[in-house]
Design brief:
It is a single-pass membrane protein. By secondary structure, the protein is mainly α. Helices cover about 65% and strands about 0% of the residues.
Protein backbone atom coordinates (compact mmCIF):
# COMPACT_ATOMS: atom_id res chain seq x y z
CA UNK A 1 0.00 0.00 0.00
CA UNK A 2 1.03 3.57 -0.60
CA UNK A 3 2.47 5.42 2.36
CA UNK A 4 1.47 9.06 2.26
CA UNK A 5 4.09 11.72 2.67
CA UNK A 6 3.82 12.80 6.26
CA UNK A 7 4.07 16.55 6.21
CA UNK A 8 2.00 19.67 6.54
CA UNK A 9 1.93 22.46 4.00
CA UNK A 10 5.07 23.68 5.76
CA UNK A 11 7.07 20.51 6.43
CA UNK A 12 9.25 20.40 9.51
CA UNK A 13 12.71 20.54 8.03
CA UNK A 14 14.43 20.19 11.40
CA UNK A 15 13.78 16.47 11.08
CA UNK A 16 16.48 16.43 8.43
CA UNK A 17 18.90 16.11 11.34
CA UNK A 18 22.42 17.37 11.37
CA UNK A 19 23.57 19.47 8.47
CA UNK A 20 25.34 17.67 5.67
CA UNK A 21 28.17 20.13 6.11
CA UNK A 22 28.48 19.73 9.87
CA UNK A 23 30.33 16.47 9.34
CA UNK A 24 33.77 16.31 10.84
CA UNK A 25 36.20 18.14 8.58
CA UNK A 26 39.92 18.54 8.51
CA UNK A 27 40.57 21.40 11.02
CA UNK A 28 42.84 23.22 8.57
CA UNK A 29 40.31 23.13 5.74
CA UNK A 30 37.55 24.21 8.11
CA UNK A 31 39.49 27.17 9.40
CA UNK A 32 40.41 28.64 6.03
CA UNK A 33 37.03 28.24 4.31
CA UNK A 34 35.14 31.30 5.55
CA UNK A 35 32.32 30.86 3.01
CA UNK A 36 31.12 27.53 4.38
CA UNK A 37 28.37 28.88 6.71
CA UNK A 38 26.79 30.90 3.87
CA UNK A 39 27.19 28.06 1.37
CA UNK A 40 25.68 25.62 3.84
CA UNK A 41 22.59 27.81 4.25
CA UNK A 42 22.34 28.20 0.48
CA UNK A 43 22.41 24.44 -0.07
CA UNK A 44 19.92 23.71 2.69
CA UNK A 45 17.60 26.43 1.36
CA UNK A 46 17.73 24.83 -2.09
CA UNK A 47 16.75 21.44 -0.67
CA UNK A 48 13.92 22.98 1.36
CA UNK A 49 12.57 24.72 -1.74
CA UNK A 50 12.72 21.51 -3.78
CA UNK A 51 10.94 19.67 -0.97
CA UNK A 52 8.22 22.29 -0.60
CA UNK A 53 7.52 22.47 -4.32
CA UNK A 54 7.21 18.73 -4.74
CA UNK A 55 5.14 18.48 -1.59
CA UNK A 56 2.66 20.90 -3.16
CA UNK A 57 2.62 18.83 -6.35
CA UNK A 58 2.03 15.64 -4.36
CA UNK A 59 -0.79 17.15 -2.29
CA UNK A 60 -3.24 17.44 -5.21
CA UNK A 61 -6.25 15.14 -5.45
CA UNK A 62 -6.57 12.34 -7.98
CA UNK A 63 -8.62 14.49 -10.35
CA UNK A 64 -5.83 17.03 -10.78
CA UNK A 65 -2.84 14.68 -10.78
CA UNK A 66 -1.49 14.20 -14.33
CA UNK A 67 -3.85 16.79 -15.81
CA UNK A 68 -2.55 19.33 -18.33
CA UNK A 69 -2.57 21.97 -15.58
CA UNK A 70 -0.63 19.69 -13.21
CA UNK A 71 2.00 18.89 -15.86
CA UNK A 72 2.33 22.63 -16.42
CA UNK A 73 2.95 23.15 -12.69
CA UNK A 74 5.52 20.35 -12.74
CA UNK A 75 7.44 22.06 -15.54
CA UNK A 76 7.25 25.36 -13.64
CA UNK A 77 8.79 23.60 -10.65
CA UNK A 78 11.57 22.20 -12.82
CA UNK A 79 12.36 25.57 -14.37
CA UNK A 80 12.48 27.23 -10.93
CA UNK A 81 14.73 24.48 -9.54
CA UNK A 82 16.95 24.73 -12.60
CA UNK A 83 17.40 28.48 -12.13
CA UNK A 84 18.23 28.11 -8.45
CA UNK A 85 20.63 25.28 -9.27
CA UNK A 86 22.35 27.43 -11.89
CA UNK A 87 22.59 30.35 -9.44
CA UNK A 88 24.32 28.18 -6.84
CA UNK A 89 26.81 26.93 -9.42
CA UNK A 90 27.44 30.48 -10.63
CA UNK A 91 28.06 31.67 -7.07
CA UNK A 92 30.71 29.00 -6.65
CA UNK A 93 32.02 28.65 -10.19
CA UNK A 94 35.61 28.55 -8.97
CA UNK A 95 34.82 25.16 -7.41
CA UNK A 96 33.44 23.62 -10.60
CA UNK A 97 36.84 22.88 -12.13
CA UNK A 98 38.16 21.18 -8.99
CA UNK A 99 37.96 17.48 -8.28
CA UNK A 100 35.58 15.80 -7.69
CA UNK A 101 33.14 18.57 -8.60
CA UNK A 102 34.32 18.75 -12.21
CA UNK A 103 33.36 15.11 -12.75
CA UNK A 104 30.03 15.40 -10.90
CA UNK A 105 28.87 18.47 -12.79
CA UNK A 106 30.06 17.13 -16.16
CA UNK A 107 28.10 13.93 -15.53
CA UNK A 108 25.01 15.99 -14.73
CA UNK A 109 25.28 18.01 -17.93
CA UNK A 110 25.72 14.86 -20.00
CA UNK A 111 22.67 13.40 -18.28
CA UNK A 112 20.65 16.52 -18.98
CA UNK A 113 21.49 16.39 -22.70
CA UNK A 114 19.69 13.03 -22.84
CA UNK A 115 16.56 14.90 -21.84
CA UNK A 116 16.54 16.84 -25.11
CA UNK A 117 15.26 13.82 -27.03
CA UNK A 118 12.58 13.37 -24.37
CA UNK A 119 11.49 16.98 -24.89
CA UNK A 120 11.32 16.43 -28.66
CA UNK A 121 9.28 13.26 -28.21
CA UNK A 122 6.92 15.02 -25.80
CA UNK A 123 6.36 17.86 -28.26
CA UNK A 124 5.54 15.23 -30.89
CA UNK A 125 3.11 13.67 -28.42
CA UNK A 126 1.42 17.01 -27.84
CA UNK A 127 1.03 17.41 -31.59
CA UNK A 128 -0.54 13.96 -31.71
CA UNK A 129 -3.07 15.00 -29.05
CA UNK A 130 -3.88 18.02 -31.24
CA UNK A 131 -4.86 15.62 -34.03
CA UNK A 132 -7.28 13.93 -31.64
CA UNK A 133 -8.57 17.35 -30.65
CA UNK A 134 -9.51 18.01 -34.28
CA UNK A 135 -11.73 14.92 -34.26
CA UNK A 136 -13.35 16.12 -31.04
CA UNK A 137 -14.01 19.42 -32.74
CA UNK A 138 -15.83 17.63 -35.56
CA UNK A 139 -17.96 15.71 -33.06
CA UNK A 140 -18.85 18.87 -31.14
CA UNK A 141 -19.68 20.82 -34.30
CA UNK A 142 -21.87 17.97 -35.56
CA UNK A 143 -23.83 17.51 -32.34
CA UNK A 144 -23.87 21.02 -30.93
CA UNK A 145 -27.07 21.98 -32.74
CA UNK A 146 -29.69 23.65 -30.59
CA UNK A 147 -32.50 23.10 -33.11
CA UNK A 148 -32.31 19.32 -33.11
CA UNK A 149 -30.15 16.38 -34.08
CA UNK A 150 -30.63 14.72 -37.45
CA UNK A 151 -29.35 11.49 -38.94
CA UNK A 152 -26.65 13.27 -40.95
CA UNK A 153 -25.23 14.94 -37.86
CA UNK A 154 -25.11 11.66 -35.95
CA UNK A 155 -23.43 9.94 -38.90
CA UNK A 156 -20.80 12.68 -39.14
CA UNK A 157 -20.09 12.49 -35.41
CA UNK A 158 -19.92 8.70 -35.61
CA UNK A 159 -17.30 8.81 -38.36
CA UNK A 160 -15.17 11.28 -36.36
CA UNK A 161 -15.42 9.04 -33.28
CA UNK A 162 -14.23 6.03 -35.27
CA UNK A 163 -11.35 8.01 -36.78
CA UNK A 164 -10.46 9.21 -33.29
CA UNK A 165 -10.42 5.63 -31.99
CA UNK A 166 -8.08 4.53 -34.77
CA UNK A 167 -5.73 7.45 -34.18
CA UNK A 168 -5.52 6.67 -30.47
CA UNK A 169 -4.47 3.08 -31.00
CA UNK A 170 -1.08 2.23 -29.63
CA UNK A 171 1.26 1.89 -32.61
CA UNK A 172 2.67 -1.31 -31.14
CA UNK A 173 -0.71 -3.04 -31.30
CA UNK A 174 -0.81 -5.98 -33.67
CA UNK A 175 -3.28 -6.03 -36.54
CA UNK A 176 -5.34 -8.52 -34.57
CA UNK A 177 -5.63 -6.20 -31.61
CA UNK A 178 -6.36 -3.37 -33.99
CA UNK A 179 -9.29 -5.24 -35.47
CA UNK A 180 -10.65 -6.13 -32.04
CA UNK A 181 -10.42 -2.56 -30.81
CA UNK A 182 -11.97 -1.19 -34.01
CA UNK A 183 -14.87 -3.56 -33.48
CA UNK A 184 -15.44 -2.11 -30.01
CA UNK A 185 -15.90 1.29 -31.65
CA UNK A 186 -18.46 -0.04 -34.07
CA UNK A 187 -16.39 -0.73 -37.18
CA UNK A 188 -14.47 -3.83 -38.15
CA UNK A 189 -11.89 -3.72 -40.93
CA UNK A 190 -10.66 -6.91 -42.53
CA UNK A 191 -7.50 -5.18 -43.67
CA UNK A 192 -5.27 -2.72 -41.89
CA UNK A 193 -4.69 -0.32 -44.77
CA UNK A 194 -6.08 2.60 -42.80
CA UNK A 195 -3.79 1.81 -39.90
CA UNK A 196 -0.80 1.55 -42.25
CA UNK A 197 -1.59 4.99 -43.62
CA UNK A 198 -1.81 6.35 -40.10
CA UNK A 199 1.55 4.81 -39.20
CA UNK A 200 3.07 6.33 -42.33
CA UNK A 201 1.73 9.76 -41.34
CA UNK A 202 3.10 9.39 -37.83
CA UNK A 203 6.50 8.21 -39.05
CA UNK A 204 6.80 11.43 -41.03
CA UNK A 205 5.66 13.65 -38.18
CA UNK A 206 7.83 12.38 -35.33
CA UNK A 207 11.10 14.22 -34.80
CA UNK A 208 12.87 11.37 -32.99
CA UNK A 209 13.95 8.23 -34.90
CA UNK A 210 11.48 5.36 -35.07
CA UNK A 211 14.03 3.19 -33.26
CA UNK A 212 14.19 5.65 -30.36
CA UNK A 213 12.89 4.38 -27.02
CA UNK A 214 11.68 6.63 -24.22
CA UNK A 215 12.08 3.74 -21.79
CA UNK A 216 15.75 3.26 -22.68
CA UNK A 217 16.32 7.01 -22.61
CA UNK A 218 14.97 7.21 -19.06
CA UNK A 219 17.25 4.35 -18.05
CA UNK A 220 20.21 6.24 -19.52
CA UNK A 221 19.23 9.40 -17.63
CA UNK A 222 18.92 7.48 -14.37
CA UNK A 223 22.16 5.51 -14.70
CA UNK A 224 24.81 6.18 -12.05
CA UNK A 225 22.80 8.61 -9.95
CA UNK A 226 24.30 7.64 -6.62
CA UNK A 227 24.36 9.49 -3.30
CA UNK A 228 27.55 11.51 -2.90
CA UNK A 229 30.14 10.01 -0.60
CA UNK A 230 31.13 11.79 2.57
CA UNK A 231 34.52 12.74 1.17
CA UNK A 232 32.84 14.18 -1.95
CA UNK A 233 30.48 16.27 0.16
CA UNK A 234 33.36 17.61 2.22
CA UNK A 235 35.63 18.20 -0.79
CA UNK A 236 32.90 20.17 -2.61
CA UNK A 237 31.60 21.98 0.50
CA UNK A 238 28.21 20.38 -0.11
CA UNK A 239 27.87 21.19 -3.82
CA UNK A 240 27.83 17.45 -4.55
CA UNK A 241 24.48 17.29 -2.72
CA UNK A 242 23.08 20.07 -4.93
CA UNK A 243 24.04 18.13 -8.08
CA UNK A 244 22.58 14.93 -6.65
CA UNK A 245 19.33 16.70 -5.76
CA UNK A 246 18.97 18.27 -9.19
CA UNK A 247 19.74 14.95 -10.88
CA UNK A 248 16.75 13.36 -9.18
CA UNK A 249 14.52 16.34 -9.95
CA UNK A 250 15.51 16.07 -13.60
CA UNK A 251 14.97 12.30 -13.75
CA UNK A 252 11.54 12.50 -12.15
CA UNK A 253 10.34 15.32 -14.40
CA UNK A 254 11.42 13.45 -17.54
CA UNK A 255 9.80 10.26 -16.24
CA UNK A 256 6.51 12.02 -15.44
CA UNK A 257 6.39 13.59 -18.92
CA UNK A 258 6.85 10.17 -20.53
CA UNK A 259 4.17 8.73 -18.25
CA UNK A 260 1.63 11.40 -19.18
CA UNK A 261 2.22 12.21 -22.86
CA UNK A 262 2.20 9.74 -25.80
CA UNK A 263 5.70 8.85 -26.98
CA UNK A 264 7.58 5.89 -28.37
CA UNK A 265 8.16 2.77 -26.30
CA UNK A 266 6.79 4.18 -23.08
CA UNK A 267 8.11 2.39 -20.02
CA UNK A 268 7.49 3.48 -16.45
CA UNK A 269 9.64 1.00 -14.57
CA UNK A 270 12.66 3.27 -14.07
CA UNK A 271 14.28 2.58 -10.73
CA UNK A 272 14.16 5.46 -8.25
CA UNK A 273 16.70 4.96 -5.51
CA UNK A 274 16.30 7.90 -3.15
CA UNK A 275 17.76 7.66 0.35
CA UNK A 276 15.21 8.64 2.96
CA UNK A 277 17.63 11.00 4.71
CA UNK A 278 17.12 13.50 1.88
CA UNK A 279 14.01 15.49 2.74
CA UNK A 280 12.94 15.97 -0.88
CA UNK A 281 12.91 12.20 -1.43
CA UNK A 282 9.58 11.64 0.34
CA UNK A 283 7.31 13.83 -1.83
CA UNK A 284 9.03 12.73 -5.06
CA UNK A 285 8.69 9.06 -4.15
CA UNK A 286 5.06 9.64 -3.20
CA UNK A 287 4.37 11.15 -6.62
CA UNK A 288 6.23 8.31 -8.30
CA UNK A 289 4.11 5.79 -6.41
CA UNK A 290 0.82 7.58 -7.16
CA UNK A 291 1.60 7.73 -10.88
CA UNK A 292 2.53 4.04 -10.93
CA UNK A 293 -0.75 3.22 -9.17
CA UNK A 294 -2.60 5.20 -11.82
CA UNK A 295 -0.87 3.24 -14.59
CA UNK A 296 -1.96 -0.07 -13.01
CA UNK A 297 -5.67 0.75 -13.02
CA UNK A 298 -7.61 -1.53 -15.33
CA UNK A 299 -8.88 1.29 -17.51
CA UNK A 300 -5.40 2.84 -17.88
CA UNK A 301 -3.20 -0.18 -18.52
CA UNK A 302 -3.25 0.01 -22.31
CA UNK A 303 -3.51 3.76 -22.64
CA UNK A 304 -1.09 5.72 -24.81
CA UNK A 305 -0.60 8.27 -22.01
CA UNK A 306 -1.73 8.85 -18.43
CA UNK A 307 -2.71 12.47 -19.03
CA UNK A 308 -6.14 12.98 -17.45
CA UNK A 309 -7.47 14.59 -20.58
CA UNK A 310 -6.47 11.53 -22.64
CA UNK A 311 -8.54 9.39 -20.30
CA UNK A 312 -11.35 11.92 -20.66
CA UNK A 313 -11.18 11.59 -24.45
CA UNK A 314 -11.20 7.78 -24.30
CA UNK A 315 -14.06 7.66 -21.80
CA UNK A 316 -16.25 10.28 -23.48
CA UNK A 317 -15.62 8.90 -26.96
CA UNK A 318 -16.52 5.38 -25.81
CA UNK A 319 -19.78 6.55 -24.22
CA UNK A 320 -20.62 8.68 -27.24
CA UNK A 321 -19.91 5.82 -29.61
CA UNK A 322 -22.09 3.39 -27.66
CA UNK A 323 -24.83 5.97 -27.51
CA UNK A 324 -24.79 6.76 -31.23
CA UNK A 325 -24.82 3.01 -31.98
CA UNK A 326 -28.13 2.67 -30.14
CA UNK A 327 -29.85 5.67 -31.74
CA UNK A 328 -32.86 5.17 -33.97
CA UNK A 329 -34.72 7.84 -35.88
CA UNK A 330 -36.80 9.78 -35.30
CA UNK A 331 -34.72 10.56 -32.22
CA UNK A 332 -36.68 10.24 -28.94
CA UNK A 333 -36.48 13.25 -26.64
CA UNK A 334 -34.78 11.34 -23.82
CA UNK A 335 -32.09 10.07 -26.22
CA UNK A 336 -31.43 13.58 -27.46
CA UNK A 337 -31.04 14.79 -23.88
CA UNK A 338 -28.55 11.99 -23.20
CA UNK A 339 -26.56 12.89 -26.31
CA UNK A 340 -26.40 16.53 -25.24
CA UNK A 341 -25.22 15.48 -21.78
CA UNK A 342 -22.37 13.50 -23.31
CA UNK A 343 -21.57 16.41 -25.61
CA UNK A 344 -21.23 18.67 -22.56
CA UNK A 345 -18.77 16.20 -21.00
CA UNK A 346 -16.78 16.08 -24.22
CA UNK A 347 -16.75 19.87 -24.39
CA UNK A 348 -15.06 20.06 -20.97
CA UNK A 349 -12.22 17.81 -22.16
CA UNK A 350 -11.95 19.70 -25.43
CA UNK A 351 -11.77 23.03 -23.57
CA UNK A 352 -8.97 21.80 -21.30
CA UNK A 353 -6.94 20.74 -24.33
CA UNK A 354 -7.70 23.89 -26.31
CA UNK A 355 -6.61 26.13 -23.45
CA UNK A 356 -3.74 24.02 -22.17
CA UNK A 357 -1.83 22.41 -25.04
CA UNK A 358 -0.25 25.53 -26.55
CA UNK A 359 1.10 26.85 -23.21
CA UNK A 360 2.29 23.34 -22.35
CA UNK A 361 4.19 23.03 -25.61
CA UNK A 362 5.83 26.41 -24.98
CA UNK A 363 6.93 25.19 -21.55
CA UNK A 364 8.43 22.02 -23.01
CA UNK A 365 10.27 24.16 -25.56
CA UNK A 366 11.53 26.39 -22.74
CA UNK A 367 12.74 23.34 -20.80
CA UNK A 368 14.64 22.23 -23.92
CA UNK A 369 16.34 25.60 -24.35
CA UNK A 370 17.04 25.96 -20.64
CA UNK A 371 18.82 22.59 -20.61
CA UNK A 372 20.99 23.62 -23.54
CA UNK A 373 21.73 27.06 -22.11
CA UNK A 374 22.55 25.77 -18.63
CA UNK A 375 24.94 23.18 -20.00
CA UNK A 376 26.71 25.72 -22.20
CA UNK A 377 27.06 28.23 -19.38
CA UNK A 378 28.14 25.54 -16.94
CA UNK A 379 30.86 24.19 -19.21
CA UNK A 380 32.07 27.74 -19.85
CA UNK A 381 32.33 28.28 -16.09
CA UNK A 382 34.36 25.10 -15.72
CA UNK A 383 36.66 26.19 -18.54
CA UNK A 384 37.18 29.64 -17.01
CA UNK A 385 37.85 28.14 -13.60
CA UNK A 386 40.54 25.87 -14.98
CA UNK A 387 42.41 28.70 -16.73
Amino acid sequence: MRTDYQGSSSPNFTSFGRSILSMKRDPVVHSIDHEIPHQEKEIEAFQRQVTQRFHELSAVDSQELLSVSWISKLLDVFLCCQEEFKAILFNHNSSLSKQPMDKLISDYFERSIKGLDVCNAIRDGIEQIRQWQKQLDIVLCALDNQKGLGEGQIRRAKKALIDLAIEMLDEKDSNTNLAQRNRSFGRYQKDSQGHKSLKHFRSLSWSVPRSWSSSKQLQAIGNNIVPPKTNEIIATNGLAVVVYTMSHVFLFVMWALVAAIPCQDRGLQSHFNMPKNFIWGAPILLLHERILEESKKKERRNTCGLLKEIYGIEKSARFMNELTDSIQFPLPEEKEEEVRKRVDELRVVYGALKNGLDPLEKQVREVFHRIVRSRTEGLDSIARGSD
